[in-house]
Protein backbone atom coordinates (compact mmCIF):
# COMPACT_ATOMS: atom_id res chain seq x y z
CA UNK A 1 0.00 0.00 0.00
CA UNK A 2 1.32 3.44 -0.98
CA UNK A 3 2.44 5.70 1.84
CA UNK A 4 0.35 8.85 2.44
CA UNK A 5 1.21 12.08 0.65
CA UNK A 6 -0.34 15.15 2.26
CA UNK A 7 -0.55 18.89 1.77
CA UNK A 8 -1.44 20.98 4.82
CA UNK A 9 -3.17 24.31 4.15
CA UNK A 10 -4.60 27.06 6.35
CA UNK A 11 -8.16 27.14 5.03
CA UNK A 12 -10.85 26.16 2.55
CA UNK A 13 -9.88 28.73 -0.09
CA UNK A 14 -6.30 27.44 -0.10
CA UNK A 15 -7.57 23.87 -0.48
CA UNK A 16 -9.68 24.64 -3.54
CA UNK A 17 -7.05 26.84 -5.19
CA UNK A 18 -4.49 24.04 -4.94
CA UNK A 19 -6.95 21.35 -6.03
CA UNK A 20 -8.30 23.29 -9.02
CA UNK A 21 -4.85 24.34 -10.20
CA UNK A 22 -3.78 20.71 -10.06
CA UNK A 23 -6.81 19.58 -12.06
CA UNK A 24 -6.20 22.33 -14.62
CA UNK A 25 -2.67 20.97 -15.08
CA UNK A 26 -3.71 17.34 -15.39
CA UNK A 27 -2.75 16.15 -11.93
CA UNK A 28 -5.17 13.55 -10.62
CA UNK A 29 -6.62 14.48 -7.25
CA UNK A 30 -6.69 13.12 -4.58
CA UNK A 31 -4.61 10.28 -6.03
CA UNK A 32 -1.50 12.44 -6.31
CA UNK A 33 -1.82 13.83 -2.78
CA UNK A 34 -4.44 14.65 -0.16
CA UNK A 35 -5.08 18.28 0.78
CA UNK A 36 -5.94 18.83 4.43
CA UNK A 37 -7.57 22.03 5.70
CA UNK A 38 -6.03 22.70 9.12
CA UNK A 39 -8.51 25.51 9.81
CA UNK A 40 -6.04 28.23 10.65
CA UNK A 41 -2.32 28.85 10.91
CA UNK A 42 -2.21 28.27 14.67
CA UNK A 43 -3.66 24.78 14.37
CA UNK A 44 -1.38 23.98 11.43
CA UNK A 45 1.74 24.97 13.37
CA UNK A 46 0.54 23.32 16.59
CA UNK A 47 0.01 19.94 14.86
CA UNK A 48 2.95 20.01 12.44
CA UNK A 49 5.28 18.05 14.70
CA UNK A 50 2.67 15.31 15.06
CA UNK A 51 2.22 15.12 11.28
CA UNK A 52 5.98 14.75 10.84
CA UNK A 53 6.09 11.91 13.36
CA UNK A 54 3.61 9.81 11.38
CA UNK A 55 5.78 6.81 10.55
CA UNK A 56 4.02 5.83 7.32
CA UNK A 57 4.04 9.34 5.82
CA UNK A 58 6.02 9.70 2.56
CA UNK A 59 5.64 13.38 1.64
CA UNK A 60 4.30 16.40 3.51
CA UNK A 61 3.58 19.70 1.80
CA UNK A 62 3.05 22.87 3.84
CA UNK A 63 1.31 25.89 2.34
CA UNK A 64 0.89 28.99 4.51
CA UNK A 65 0.55 32.75 4.09
CA UNK A 66 3.68 34.83 4.62
CA UNK A 67 1.41 37.61 5.98
CA UNK A 68 3.17 40.86 6.90
CA UNK A 69 6.51 39.31 7.93
CA UNK A 70 7.72 36.54 5.65
CA UNK A 71 10.90 35.88 7.61
CA UNK A 72 9.01 35.55 10.90
CA UNK A 73 6.65 33.01 9.34
CA UNK A 74 9.59 31.14 7.84
CA UNK A 75 11.37 31.08 11.17
CA UNK A 76 8.32 29.61 12.92
CA UNK A 77 8.32 26.74 10.41
CA UNK A 78 12.09 26.42 10.47
CA UNK A 79 12.12 26.03 14.25
CA UNK A 80 9.62 23.17 14.16
CA UNK A 81 11.34 21.41 11.25
CA UNK A 82 14.81 21.80 12.75
CA UNK A 83 13.61 20.23 15.99
CA UNK A 84 12.28 17.35 13.88
CA UNK A 85 15.78 16.82 12.49
CA UNK A 86 15.60 18.59 9.13
CA UNK A 87 18.33 20.83 7.70
CA UNK A 88 16.34 23.96 6.82
CA UNK A 89 17.84 26.92 4.93
CA UNK A 90 17.85 30.33 6.57
CA UNK A 91 15.52 31.70 3.90
CA UNK A 92 12.80 30.13 1.74
CA UNK A 93 13.71 29.08 -1.80
CA UNK A 94 11.97 31.43 -4.27
CA UNK A 95 10.74 28.53 -6.42
CA UNK A 96 9.45 26.66 -3.37
CA UNK A 97 11.46 24.80 -0.74
CA UNK A 98 11.85 20.99 -0.73
CA UNK A 99 13.67 19.18 2.09
CA UNK A 100 14.96 15.64 1.51
CA UNK A 101 16.10 13.28 4.25
CA UNK A 102 16.70 9.55 3.82
CA UNK A 103 15.10 8.68 7.15
CA UNK A 104 12.21 11.15 7.18
CA UNK A 105 9.28 12.21 5.02
CA UNK A 106 10.13 14.64 2.23
CA UNK A 107 8.84 18.10 3.17
CA UNK A 108 7.86 20.91 0.82
CA UNK A 109 7.11 24.48 1.90
CA UNK A 110 5.38 27.26 -0.03
CA UNK A 111 4.85 30.70 1.52
CA UNK A 112 2.05 32.59 -0.20
CA UNK A 113 2.20 34.45 -2.40
CA UNK A 114 5.61 33.64 -3.95
CA UNK A 115 8.14 32.76 -1.22
CA UNK A 116 9.83 36.15 -1.19
CA UNK A 117 7.10 38.79 -0.81
CA UNK A 118 4.90 39.37 2.25
CA UNK A 119 1.27 38.62 1.55
CA UNK A 120 -1.34 35.91 1.38
CA UNK A 121 -3.44 33.70 -0.87
CA UNK A 122 -5.26 36.75 -2.20
CA UNK A 123 -1.99 38.23 -3.47
CA UNK A 124 -1.27 34.94 -5.24
CA UNK A 125 -4.74 34.99 -6.81
CA UNK A 126 -4.10 38.50 -8.12
CA UNK A 127 -0.99 37.12 -9.85
CA UNK A 128 -3.30 34.82 -11.85
CA UNK A 129 -5.09 37.82 -13.39
CA UNK A 130 -3.77 38.73 -16.87
CA UNK A 131 -1.43 41.72 -16.94
CA UNK A 132 -3.66 43.52 -19.44
CA UNK A 133 -6.80 43.19 -17.30
CA UNK A 134 -8.37 46.64 -16.91
CA UNK A 135 -10.68 45.87 -14.00
CA UNK A 136 -8.08 45.05 -11.35
CA UNK A 137 -6.44 48.51 -11.34
CA UNK A 138 -9.91 50.06 -11.22
CA UNK A 139 -10.96 47.76 -8.36
CA UNK A 140 -7.86 48.79 -6.42
CA UNK A 141 -8.58 52.44 -7.09
CA UNK A 142 -12.18 52.07 -5.91
CA UNK A 143 -11.08 50.32 -2.72
CA UNK A 144 -8.49 53.03 -2.13
CA UNK A 145 -11.18 55.73 -2.39
CA UNK A 146 -13.61 54.18 0.10
CA UNK A 147 -14.24 56.98 2.62
CA UNK A 148 -14.75 54.67 5.60
CA UNK A 149 -12.44 51.69 5.24
CA UNK A 150 -13.25 49.23 8.02
CA UNK A 151 -10.51 46.70 7.28
CA UNK A 152 -6.87 46.92 8.27
CA UNK A 153 -4.14 47.63 5.70
CA UNK A 154 -2.83 44.10 6.28
CA UNK A 155 -5.87 42.59 4.53
CA UNK A 156 -6.17 45.15 1.75
CA UNK A 157 -5.44 42.42 -0.84
CA UNK A 158 -8.64 40.64 0.23
CA UNK A 159 -10.74 43.71 -0.47
CA UNK A 160 -9.09 44.28 -3.84
CA UNK A 161 -9.48 40.75 -5.20
CA UNK A 162 -13.01 40.23 -3.91
CA UNK A 163 -14.06 43.54 -5.45
CA UNK A 164 -12.57 42.34 -8.74
CA UNK A 165 -14.36 38.99 -8.47
CA UNK A 166 -17.65 40.81 -7.83
CA UNK A 167 -17.37 42.39 -11.30
CA UNK A 168 -16.98 39.18 -13.30
CA UNK A 169 -19.62 37.56 -15.53
CA UNK A 170 -20.79 35.50 -12.57
CA UNK A 171 -20.04 37.79 -9.61
CA UNK A 172 -18.56 36.56 -6.37
CA UNK A 173 -17.15 33.18 -7.33
CA UNK A 174 -14.72 31.76 -4.75
CA UNK A 175 -11.11 31.38 -5.86
CA UNK A 176 -11.30 27.70 -6.74
CA UNK A 177 -14.27 28.03 -9.09
CA UNK A 178 -12.84 31.29 -10.45
CA UNK A 179 -9.89 29.18 -11.64
CA UNK A 180 -12.26 26.64 -13.23
CA UNK A 181 -14.15 29.50 -14.92
CA UNK A 182 -10.81 30.92 -16.12
CA UNK A 183 -11.38 34.29 -14.48
CA UNK A 184 -8.10 33.41 -12.76
CA UNK A 185 -5.63 31.99 -15.28
CA UNK A 186 -4.15 28.62 -14.25
CA UNK A 187 -1.54 29.02 -17.00
CA UNK A 188 -0.14 32.31 -15.64
CA UNK A 189 3.58 32.55 -14.93
CA UNK A 190 3.10 32.37 -11.14
CA UNK A 191 0.74 29.41 -11.43
CA UNK A 192 3.37 27.62 -13.51
CA UNK A 193 6.04 28.21 -10.85
CA UNK A 194 3.69 26.84 -8.19
CA UNK A 195 2.74 23.76 -10.24
CA UNK A 196 6.40 23.07 -11.02
CA UNK A 197 7.09 23.01 -7.27
CA UNK A 198 4.12 20.70 -6.66
CA UNK A 199 5.28 18.30 -9.36
CA UNK A 200 8.83 18.29 -8.00
CA UNK A 201 7.47 17.53 -4.54
CA UNK A 202 4.75 14.96 -5.25
CA UNK A 203 5.41 13.54 -8.72
CA UNK A 204 9.16 13.56 -9.43
Describe it.
The structure is a single chain. This protein has 204 residues and is an alpha/beta fold. The chain has one domain (1-204). It is 42% helix and 13% strand. The chain has a five-stranded mixed sheet, sandwiched between helices. Helix 5 (135-144) crosses helix 6. The model has no long low-confidence stretch (mean pLDDT 95).
- Number of separate domains: 1
Mean pLDDT: 95
Question: Strand order of the main beta sheet, please?
Answer: 2-1-3-5-4
Which regions are unreliable across 5 or more consecutive residues at pLDDT < 50? none
Give the overall silhouette. globular
Strand composition percent: 5-15%
Overall SS class: alpha/beta
Write the layout of secondary structure elements.
Elements: E1 5-9, H1 12-24, E2 34-37, H2 41-52, E3 59-65, H3 70-83, E4 97-99, E5 106-112, H4 121-126, H5 135-144, H6 156-165, H7 175-180, H8 189-202
Write a brief structural summary.
The protein has 204 residues and is of the alpha/beta class. Helices cover 42% and strands 13% of the residues. The chain is built from eight helices and five strands.
Features:
single chain, 204 residues, alpha/beta, five-stranded mixed sheet, 13% strand
